[in-house]
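Late entry, evening session. Most of the bench is empty. Finally got around to the prediction I had been postponing all week. Sequence below, unchanged from the version circulated by S.P.
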Amino acid sequence: MQQKVKYRLVGFAVILISAAVIFPVFFDGAGYKERHLQSEIPPGPERPEIVRIEPQNKPLPDTSKPAEPKPPVELPKPPKQVKQVIEKIEKEQKVELEIHKDQPVLDQEGVPVAWTLQLASFKDEANAKSLRKQLIGEGHKVFTRKQGELIKVYVGPEFQKSRLESLKLSLKKDFGLNGIIVRFTTQ
């Protein structure tokens, strides 16, 4: 049986070698001619020129902190006739009108400087809403802001800090709340 296997292997090797020699003779590719067809695909569009545009505007200034206020502008003294009318109204209605005291000012960016009275800070939003509702019922301008976990209740804003100082005293008397006056920001 060993002899049969040897004969078979030798026969298989002879067939392989003869196929390797004869195959290239018959299949050399000489009979194959490639057809050249004209392409009907149009040429691609030209690539557009890349234009780099530099920004014309200057970057905006940093507004994370409010700008420092400018000194107040001096108002001219009112004429005698106007001053007399103001004094008459002050006496009749018992109102203090001092237009030259604590004038509104602009900051370095030209924005009016405003102040608010921070009355309270609450963790519970219901407490903040309740206080806001009471203050609105009394006729005050009130808003709340959430900062972190706290909800802060503010009264204002006002352009004259002296008005908030007098309001602070009246709110302390009415509600027992001792607030602090802080600079008003929109953030």
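Two things to note before I forget:
The longest strand covers residues 150-158.
The mean pLDDT is 81.
Will write this up properly tomorrow.
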